[in-house]
Write a structure and sequence with these properties.
- By secondary structure, the chain is mostly beta strands.
- It is built from 1 helix and 25 strands.
- Strand 15 and strand 16 form a beta hairpin.
- The chain starts with 15 loop residues before the first strand and ends with a strand.
- The N terminus is likely disordered.
Amino acid sequence: MPCNARGVTAMTPRTIQQLVHALEITEGAGVTVYRTIGTPQRRHLDPFLMLDHFASNDPDDYIAGFPDHPHRGFITLTYMLDGHMEHRDSMGNRGDLRAGGIQWMKAASGVIHSEMPQQTNGLMRGFQLWINLPAGEKMSDPQYQEFSSERVPVVEQDGMRVKVISGEFAGQRGPIDDPHTAIQYFDVSLPPETAFTHRLDSSATAFLYAFEGSLQIGAAAVGTRTLVVLGSGDEIALIAGSEGARFILLNGRPLREPIVQYGPFVMNTEAEIRQAFDDFQHERLVKKRAQTVSE
């Protein structure tokens, strides 16, 4: 890592490796989502498997929700910006995810759950992220955590606002902790033409997703519903556009293991995928009740 004339270590800014514009698709029972990771443009971004952004004030886009569906082999992390979503699963867990809240579900060996909107009017916005599990954890016991907005730290400095969902920012640590990937997950809001920098682990996979306003990274302008895959380096540096910017910034330690995915099952081999389907068809998918933490 280079040093300047005073012997101070200089940061290496990460440049844009890829821009992925969100693909509008229909999921669940007819919910419109905007997907970036998990599309033909970007299948995976180790350890991240999928990123969906849902955003609508038209109930026809979201009211059908996500009825019962299975998962095995990974973690789902849902962050609500606006609206109200109820979670229920096959192990008896029930959550009420409201604006600003986060839900972390380690599906691991198997979970069947539903996520259903609890409003018929108004704005419904949020994100669902899928995070891979290492091979040794894919058949471990599931876990479930839910945290209200009051449990999510907020850092405010000179008009900048950062919600710390996971990892640490300016001495504040988010409630979600993934020991396998050590993810950082921030929701960042910037006033117009404000600069933002943050140090990143040089070995981590990193991306941001812009969903309000615009921003500039190097010479590139980035608009809304755009995923920015960041290249190598140890710092992210950007400037908000003339109307300000809001984006989520994530980074995590890659697992560097084979990924075999078929729908809601993510394993390491084709044989494990076939076993997951067989277990689901013969009602063996759910093996143990999840451990639950809710605040």
